[in-house]
Amino acid sequence: MADSIGGPARRTSRQLTPARIVGGAAQRVRVVVAGQRNIEGGPALPVYYVQDSELKQNGGAYTLQGNPPVPIFEAAGAIVEGGPALPVYVTTPELPEVGSAAILLNLQADTGITTSTAAFAGTGIITQSGTTITGVGTAFLSEVVVGDRITAVGIDGIVQSIATNTSLTLSTSATVGVGIIYTITPQAVSARVTTWADQSGNGRDFTQSGTARPIKQTISGYPALVFDNANDWMLGPNFADNLASFTVFTIARSNIPAGGDIIISKVVETFVNSGWAVDAFGAEIYVGQNDTNFLDANNDLSNTNILKVRTAEFLSISALPHVYINGSNLGESNEIVGTPTTYTNTEPVRLGVTGATLPGGVFYSGILRAVMIYSPAPNAADRAAIEAWLAARYGITL
C-alpha cells in the first residue's frame, strides 16, 4: 500500500549493506513502527518498502511507477556517523485479497517471532579434554545448538559442532576430568523460538515450552525457523477440523529425503489416525485417515532439499487432493486411494511433528519460512496470487 496517513508514501528501496548503491549514497533511515509515528517532535516519513526479493528478481534496478526509488540505508540506531537518522514508517506489500476463501492461519518467518536466550541446566554431567566435551547421560543432539555457550566449573566456550548426544566441540580448550553439572546459554545466533504469532488476525499463535524449540536463523538472506529432527516442534490451537475444503501453503526445505518431513499436522500419527498432515517430501498431503483408508498426493519431481512454494490442496472428502510446487502440479501422483469418511479429531495443530504425544514421535528436519491455511480452498487464480506473493516475499522464482 503506497499511501499512508498524511499523503502518499515516498518511494524507496531497502538496501541493507553497504551504505552506497549504484547511482549514489543511500539515505540513512531509522525504521519505526506504527506506535512511534510521532517521534522527536515530528511525524515519521511514510515510505513504501520495496522488498529485497523484488530487487533481486529485477536485477537490482527496481522501478516503481516509472520512477527509480530513493535508496535508503536502514540504521540500527537513531544516530549514524554523527548525525540523526531520518525516521521513516515502512509498509510492506500487502497480502492479495482472496475473494474465494478466508485465511485461517498466516505464519511468516520475517515477522511475529519471539525468541529467548534464557540459560537452562543441561541434562547429565560433562568433562572436557582439549576442545572436546564428553557427556554422561547428556542429550546434546536435542538440547544444544551450534552457537550456544556451555559453562561449568573450569569450562566456558561456544559450541562449534555436535557429534552425538555425548560428544561436542567447544571453541575453547580445557582439562576437566571429573563429571560436573553445566549450563547451556543460547546466544543471538542460537536463540530458541518461544512464540510464532499468527498474522491472520485469528490469534492462532504457535508456542513451545522447555528446551525443545526450533531456532530462528537468517539463511540465504531470509529468516527461517530451523527444526533439528531431534525434538523441535511447536504447538498450536485446535482448529481447521473437518473443513469442507482447504489449502495449505508453505515455504520449506527438508534436510532428509524421507521421514522427519512433516511440516504441519492435525493428527497423532499419519496413516493410522483420523486427521490431516502436510509434509515437505514433494509436498505430500495426507487427508481423512480412517484405519487404512486415506487420500495421498505428492509431487515426486520436486527436490525436497530446495526451498520452494509448496501448496497442498484438499477439495473434498471424496476427491483426491492436489499438490503444487512453485505453482505447478507437474509430476503429481496419487500414491494411495481410499474411501475416508471423516478427518474429524480433537487434536491441536502442530508444526514439525506427528506423534508428539507418543513415544518416539517423528520430528521435522529442515527449515520453514511460512505456513498459511485458507478455507475453502481458493480458486486457481487466487491460489496463484498467494503463491506469487509468497515467492516475492522470500526471493523464490516461480
Write the layout of secondary structure elements.
Blueprint (H helix, E strand, L loop, with lengths): L2 E2 L2 E2 L1 E6 L4 E2 L2 E2 L1 E6 L5 E2 L2 E2 L1 E6 L1 H6 L12 E5 L4 E2 L2 E2 L1 E6 L10 E7 L4 E4 L3 E2 L3 E12 L3 H4 L5 E4 L2 E10 L2 E14 L2 E3 L6 E5 L9 E2 L7 E5 L2 E7 L5 E2 L10 E9 L7 E5 L9 E4 L5 E6 L2 E7 L8 E7 L7 E4 L6 E5 L13 E2 L1 E2 L7 E2 L1 E11 L4 H14 L5
Parallel strand pairs: 3-9, 3-10, 6-10, 6-13, 9-13
Antiparallel strand pairs: 1-2, 4-5, 7-8, 11-12, 14-38, 15-22, 16-21, 17-20, 18-19, 18-21, 19-20, 22-23, 24-25, 25-38, 26-35, 27-32, 27-38, 28-29, 28-35, 29-30, 30-31, 31-34, 32-33, 36-37
Description:
- The chain has 398 residues and is mainly beta.
- It is 6% helix and 47% strand.
- It contains three helices and 38 strands.
- Strands 14, 24, 25, 27, 32, 33 and 38 form a seven-stranded antiparallel β-sheet that branches. Strands 26-35-28-29-30-31-34 form a seven-stranded antiparallel β-sheet, with no helix packed on it. A six-stranded antiparallel β-sheet has the order 16-21-18-19-20-17.
- Strand 36 (353-354) and strand 37 form a beta hairpin.
- The longest helix is centred in the C-terminal third of the chain and has 14 residues, at 380-393.
- The model is unreliable at 51-65 (pLDDT under 50).
